[in-house]
Structures are given as structure tokens and as C-alpha cells.
Amino acid sequence: MLTLPFPDPVLLDRDDPLRRFRERFELPRAPDGSAAAVYLCGNSLGPMPHAVRMLLGETLDDWATLGVRGHHEGARPWIPYAGTLVAPMAALVGADPLDVVLMNTLTANLHLLMASFYRPTPTRYAVLIESGAFPSDQYAIDSQLRFHGQDPAAALITVAPRPGEDLLRTGDIVAQIEANAGRLALVLLPGVQYRTGQVLDIAGISAAARAGGAVVGWDLAHAVGNIPLSLDAWDIDFAVWCTYKYLCGGPGAIGGAYVSRRYRDAFAGPRLAGWWGHDAATRFAMGAEFRPMTGAAGWQLSNPPILATAPLSIALALFAEAGMQSLRMKSVALTGFAQTALAARLGGEIECITPAAPGERGCQLSLRVRGGRDRARRVFTQLGLRGVIGDWREPDVIRIAPHPLYNTFGDVAAALDILAELVACN
Ligand SMILES: *Cc1c(COP(=O)(O)O)cnc(C)c1O
Predict the structure, then answer these.
(1) How much of the chain exceeds pLDDT 70, in percent?
(2) Helices 51-66 and 310-322 sit at what angle, rounded to 10 degrees?
(3) Given this model, what pLDDT does residue 1 score?
(4) CATH code, domain with 399
(5) Which of 272, 290, 319 is the last residue of a domain?
(6) How far away, in angstroms, is 215 Cα from ligand 1 center?
(7) Measured in angstroms, how far is the CA atom of residue 253 from the centroid of ligand 1?
(8) Which of 4, 75, 222, 400 has its CA at 20 to 30 Å from residue 215's CA atom?
(9) Which pTM does this prediction carry?
């Protein structure tokens, strides 16, 4: 009898309690349009749930037939629309709904919350980030520093992986926080690093930052819908995220933000305000004085983009139905299967830079093809032509992210079969 060095994907799929969810999605096709692609790119843009077509159709019908009355009438009135999604969103990030809001998009929310929570003084002015921070975050932070009259060369502290390493060490981050405790105003880090897929120790790093007197904010773009989160228990100050990656909220979908309950009732700092953050009971009295809503909702600016919010309601319902704990269990099994099969079949050719410990990674595996960038780039391009959709991050990383809602163990096996073929002929 033939024994494989890794489990049989057919059996794993047969025993998968979440397998029915795959049928709820329209999965993208291969570039030649022929067959369903192996879609492993939900870390960049989640695929579309079937039910979105119907819901958007109904939304357009409401607009067409009700016009302005759609704000108050119809199956899903627009004024409370984003607010009705806050409870399931808050459940996914482990927070009280009062401390969560859906508004704008990620980078805009980062600016809004930095406007309130980055308050440099002559002695406490520095911001700590990681050296590989996502470009939009770097631009936002650099521009906030300049906006506040700070020189980024003096006020920006970066923590990097050690030479020759790809991953950040918690101890190094904490040591940097402690070494700069007197002058640190803000620590801003990613819950999951986008390039390597590394999960950071949000609780431990947040505790160190707060002990040092700094405010701590988290960019959860790659964490939400990927790993279980307990924002309230972790005692952070604020967080921002997008909903179009792991959450499958659709391209350009409305973003999310969290503000700690510490600021819920009496936030004394500055805030960039808009009418949607005004107390809902008197918003339409159109008074000149701004009276914020309690909690995170007080940071809203504008009436929400309904067409960029509706798909998220479908996605959040799917997540609630599947359950984040079950999703996480399958996710760990998917990446574990991928890792074992990779090591057995391609260990000499491909290095996985994502942490091996399940607790330190989410769905994403970041692969480095040995032999340099040109070879890796060829393999990546041909992978796409063969219908395996991952993505590329400079200088030399192929990211694949098997998602427990819609990917199968068979997807992972198929992707690795094709990868093995391509590595052999490149
Ligand atoms: C995806 C991502 C963004 C994207 O920002 P948008 O404002 O939604 O375009 C920003 N930061 C990080 C870390 C991301 O992963």
C-alpha cells in the first residue's frame, strides 16, 4: 500500500464540517476562463458570496423605487444600515459594539484616529512602527508626524527583524518600547504582518506600550476574519481594519475601527468631526454644536456608502454561521497540511518564511523560491497562468492564503502539484 508523507486531501475534505460554505461563493476563474481557479488570494481580496448579487439588486430596486424614502423605508433602511452591522463586526474582533464602528476605509480611519490619539508633546512625541510596515501606513504616519510639526527622522522609531531574519521578535519590539519609554507617544503595529503572515503578540506588546506610557494602536487589515481577536481583553487603545480581504466584504468595502471603552463617555481630546458622528437623536435638528455619539460611533464623518456596505452584511452572516473558532481550526489544519506537504515535496526548493508555529500565523503562507528573484517571478507568473491565484510581494515572496470558508484541502494539494511541476522546469 502506498503511504503518502502527508494526509490524503480527499479524506480531509470529506471530514471538513465547513465544506458546505464553498458553495456559497462565486469563485474566480482561471485567466483563460476555462475552469475555476484555485483561489488563494483572499488575503488581498476575498471572493464574492452568491447572495451579494441578490442583495445589491434589492438595494438598487429600493433606490429606484423609493428614492430618498429609502433612508427610512424598504427592507433595509439606509440611515441605520452600517450601525446594524456593528454587532456582528464587534463579535468578530472581541469587542463591545459601543466601541466598534464601520466607516470610511482603512487609511482614512488611521488618519482620523491618529488625529485623536497621536498627541505629541515636547518630551513625548515619538511613534514606533515596524520597518516593513505597509506603505499606506508608512505614508499616513509620516504625514501625521509632519502635520504635527515633527521631523520623522527624529520622531519615527522602527523595529526590524534581525539581519538575515524575516520575522519580528516580540522581545526586540518590547526592548525598543522600553528603551524609548520616556519619549514614545504612540506604538502602531500590524496584528498580522502582510508580507510574512506573522501574527504579532498583540496582548504582550500592548501591555508593554501602555506600561511605558504610550498609546497603542493596531492595524488589523490582515488579522480581521483571519485569526480570533479579543480587543477588549487585550486592552489596546484603538484599531483600524479593512473588510475586503479575509472578510470578503467586496472591493473598496467600508472599513472598521475600534476605540477603547476608556474613551467611551468622556473623550476630551481633539477629534475631526462630521454630522454622522453627532448624537443620532438630534442629528437632524441640524444644530451648530457637535454632540458626539457615545463610543466609536462618535468618530463617524459621513452617511455610509450603502453599496460598499451591503456585501459586508452577507459576509458577516457567513462568518457568524460558520463561527470564528471553527474557521480557525480549519485554517490551522489547512496551513498545517500545506506546510507538511511543502516540506515533504519541495523542501529543498521553497522556503516558507511564515512562522511554523500555528499560533504565530493565520491563513497566509509566504513562500520564497530558492534561486533568486527571476526564478521566483517566473514560477509565480506561470502559477497564475495555470489558474493558481496567489500574489507577489517584492522582492521575492509568493503569498498564498487558503481560506477556511471557501478553500479545500484539495485546493491546497492542487496548488502544490502545480507548484512542484513549475519548480521542476524552471
Ligand atoms: C490592505 C492594507 C491597507 C489598505 O488600505 P486601504 O485604505 O483600505 O486602501 C492598509 N494597511 C495595511 C496593513 C493593509 O494590509
Answers:
(1) 99
(2) 140
(3) 46
(4) 3.90.1150.10
(5) 319
(6) 21
(7) 12
(8) 222
(9) 0.96
Structural domain boundaries, residue 118: 60-319
pLDDT at 4 over 90: no
Is the CB of 134 inside a 6 Å radius of any atom of ligand 1? yes
Looking at ligand 1, which residue's alpha carbon is closest to its atom 1?
221
- Pick the atom of ligand 1 nearest to 110's CA: 7
Q: With beta carbons less than 8 A apart as the criterion, state whether 114 and 186 touch.
A: yes
Q: Are residues 225 and 328 in the same domain?
A: no
Query: What CATH number has the domain bearing residue 72?
Result: 3.40.640.10
**Looking at the structure, do residues 66 and 85 belong to the same domain, yes or no?**
yes
- The confidence score (pLDDT) of residue 3 equals 57
Single out the residue in 319, 351, 371 at which a domain terminates.
319
Q: Does residue 221 have its Cβ closer than 6 Å to ligand 1?
A: yes
| Pair (117, 19) in one structural domain | no
- Residue 23: the pLDDT is 97
